[in-house]
Amino acid sequence: MSTHASTNLETFDNPNSNRDYTIRIDTPEFTCLCPKTGQPDFASLTLEYVPDEVCVELKSFKLYIWSYREQDAFHEAVTNQILDDLVAVCQPRFMRLTAEFNVRGGVYTSVVVEHKKVDWNSSTPVQLP
What we know:
Layout: E1 11-13, E2 23-33, E3 40-50, E4 54-56, H1 58-66, H2 75-90, E5 94-104, E6 107-116
Antiparallel strand pairs: 1-4, 2-3, 3-5, 5-6
């Protein structure tokens, strides 16, 4: 596998597709460019998902994220695009992407986008005493 930025997201078979479980991936070094000024925007991404038949392969995810470094992108648009691309390849039961952009001009931006498979219902959280 290459070590250069790539838009190719790869997957592997979910080893426990009979069970709901959460995969959480933190990416603290996301960058893209502001389409108005050309300055870099920095964000921390948190991807949380309940896989169905496949899981996203982590190295391809990293290279995919790198592909945004030289792209102009509004925060809202890039967060939605990343979620759309991940949903297209993974078809998860549930997926949430949270993008927390660093301050620029005294303003912080957080964008949270979600996808839920139509026929999936999350399990009730267990409350232990």
